[in-house]
UniProtKB/TrEMBL annotation:
Keywords: NAD, Oxidoreductase
Annotated family: Belongs to the 3-hydroxyacyl-CoA dehydrogenase family.
GO molecular function: NAD+ binding; oxidoreductase activity, acting on the CH-OH group of donors, NAD or NADP as acceptor
Pfam families tied to this protein: 3HCDH, 3HCDH_N
Taxonomic lineage: Bacteria, Bacillati, Bacillota, Bacilli, Bacillales
Protein name: 3-hydroxyacyl-CoA dehydrogenase
Residues covered by the 3-hydroxyacyl-CoA dehydrogenase C-terminal domain: 185-280
């Protein structure tokens, strides 16, 4: 298990590539856009050098890790020698199925195939493949290089061997893992979406300001981030897609807050757009 490919170089994809390279894998990061790959490369180099300056990792480890990463728009090149593939594209079921059908055709028979989804069904995706036993979900958390957890979600046809391999990969990446039997939202996303949605409803109702809602949960319930801060970090468009999926699969209690829908329509997507529940224009 030496070659690790990541499909999608956005916030999660670049973080997974960063972590895999530091974990000793030979990493191929793939995206359809050269500009996205350029942005990912700049981010990875900046964050690794920053970690070295602060003494978290050595300069030698940075040089080795950076040399371990290849950036390419060639999908076939990313797939053909991969021992592990993690997909990190948009939370859209049709898109994910399309990516994995292509991977199914191009990857070696032994390849571990994983989707980095926070809510969607690995069983549904795996059913479209010739090797559903080799497929599961590995839910990483943002920022990937700092967050310790990976949720490993077993689909209906995922084999015990595949689960064990995924746990080995997690350990090599320096992460703790939990095994989850598939159900919409898994463990963390189901709770996070519920808490975040209620915080948005309270903001909409005028119960308290965004700052005070977040402060209350950080100081009163010992959350490391407030739910509105976290939603801005994740991306409000991503959170809305997650809420819509949970609403469809789990029912009324996951109906997306109207304020979230309004913000997404307005292009207020959180940190990545410069504004969400908070303003980031000067950061």
């Amino acid at each position: 298990m030496k070659n690790f490919s990541v499909i999608g170089s956005g916030v999660m994809g670049r973080g997974i590539a960063y972590t895999a390279a530091l974990g000793g894998y030979s990493v191929t990061l793939n995206d359809i856009k050269e500009t996205a790959l350029d942005n990912a490369k700049q981010y990875i180099e900046k964050e690794m050098n920053k970690s070295a300056e602060r003494g978290y990792i050595s300069a030698e480890a940075v040089n080795t890790a950076l040399s371990n990463i290849t950036y390419t728009t060639d999908f076939d090149a990313a797939a053909q020698n991969a021992d592990v593939v993690v997909e990190a594209v948009l939370e859209n079921m049709d898109l994910k199925i399309d990516v994995f059908k292509r991977l199914d055709e191009k990857c070696p028979p032994h390849t571990l195939l994983a989707t980095n989804t926070s809510t969607m069904s690995p069983t549904e995706i795996g059913a479209q493949l010739s090797r559903p036993d080799k497929f599961l979900a590995m839910h990483f958390f943002n920022p990937v290089h700092k967050m310790k957890l990976i949720e490993i979600i077993r689909g209906l046809d995922t084999s015990d061997e595949t689960m064990a391999l995924a746990q080995e990969v997690g350990e090599k990446l320096g992460k703790e893992t939990v095994e989850v039997n598939e159900f919409p939202g898994f463990v963390t996303s189901r709770m996070n979406c519920m808490i975040g949605n209620e915080a948005m409803n309270m903001l909409m109702e005028g119960v308290a300001s965004a700052e005070d809602i977040d402060k209350a949960l950080k100081l009163g319930l010992n959350h490391p981030m407030g739910p509105l801060e976290l939603a801005d970090l994740v991306g409000l468009d991503t959170r809305l897609r997650n809420m819509e999926y949970l609403y469809q699969t789990l029912g009324e209690k996951y109906r997306p807050c109207p304020l979230l829908i309004k913000y997404v329509k307005a292009g207020r997507l959180g940190r990545k757009s410069g504004s969400g529940f908070y303003n980031y224009e000067n950061q």
